[in-house]
Design a protein that fits this description.
It is built from 13 helices and 2 strands; from the N terminus they run αββαααααααααααα. The longest helix has about 35 residues. The radius of gyration is 23 Å and the shape is globular.
């Protein structure tokens, strides 16, 4: 056995445990989901081949289309907001605040990230209730309270705001680490040339974080399509179908209707959308970077 073969065998030995875990908890479940999506399966009886019946039913199902629309809207609201907010906060922390205060702010903003989504959803449900803190603040300024979680126009937006609040701290840490990798002499040279802080942000910080931004946007998109606990806790999918999402639809179909085959077909639809959006994002960032 040559030295290169020994190195390859040693490398395989080290990554084998991870490969086994990935196979059992990712690859095999995905393959099983694809198989179940072409079957009629209700847990009580073994799966029976159904061909494309689940997909034909899905095309005509208004519940699925409503959940897909809400999930896409949710994604297009939360991903830009949390990306922009975390980027600005990271830049301010890196260039404006002293080390001691900077660490305190970072720790404070990271608390919602480690908090349970159910806890955060419950907290925001209380804040946004009819007599909650948000409406009380509006009343102080002479404004009428809003039925945040009971109105079709505001329920999804309320879930979006709560989700952004929870996620900003996580992406802030990623952006902050990226800013620390940008050479300080670039900012010094820009200052000597007369560039202000805003110009430095747009011409040095933002271009220097292109790969980090791609990571944040991709993660944010995947997380947005997986949204479940916040919606389940705050609105339960209501009022009507205004906040129902794909994962909530999958949950209801699988564990309330016991239609596992149909739920698997919806899950496959979500998988295709996430992969498609991720591919589009990759193309967009490549073209922007000129690669």
């Amino acid at each position: 056995m040559t030295s290169k073969q020994k190195e390859a065998l040693g490398a395989l030995f080290y990554i084998l445990p991870s490969l086994i875990l990935i196979m059992f908890f990712s690859v095999i479940p995905i393959a099983m989901n694809v198989g179940y999506s072409f079957s009629s399966f209700n847990i009580m009886q073994p799966p029976e081949w159904a061909g494309l019946k689940n997909f034909a039913r899905m095309i005509k199902d208004p519940y699925v289309w409503a959940s897909l629309k809400n999930t896409v809207i949710f994604t297009f609201i939360t991903v830009p907001l949390q990306t922009l907010a975390s980027l600005i906060l990271a830049a301010l922390l890196a260039h404006r605040f002293k080390q001691k205060f900077r660490d305190t702010v970072k720790a404070s903003l990271f608390i919602p990230v480690i908090a349970s989504a159910v806890l955060v959803g419950t907290l925001w449900s209380i804040l946004l209730s009819t007599h909650g803190a948000v409406n009380s603040m509006l009343n102080i300024f002479g404004l009428d309270g809003v039925n945040w979680l009971g109105g079709k126009q505001t329920a999804l937006l309320s879930v979006c705001m709560a989700t952004v609040w929870k996620n900003v701290g996580y992406f802030l840490v990623i952006f902050y680490a990226g800013i620390m990798e940008i050479p300080p002499n670039l900012y010094e040279a820009a200052s000597v040339d007369g560039a202000g802080k805003v110009q430095q942000f747009f011409h040095i910080t933002v271009p220097g974080l292109s790969s980090v931004t791609y990571l944040v946007v991709t993660l944010g998109t995947i997380w947005s399509f997986q949204i479940f606990d916040m919606v389940y806790t705050m609105t339960g999918g209501g009022p009507g179908l205004s906040t129902v999402t794909l994962v909530l639809t999958i949950y209801n179909t699988a564990f309330k209707e016991y239609s596992m085959g149909y739920a698997s077909a919806i899950a496959l639809l979500m998988f295709v959308f996430v992969v498609g959006l991720s591919a589009l994002q990759k193309l967009a960032f490549r073209s922007e970077g000129g690669n």
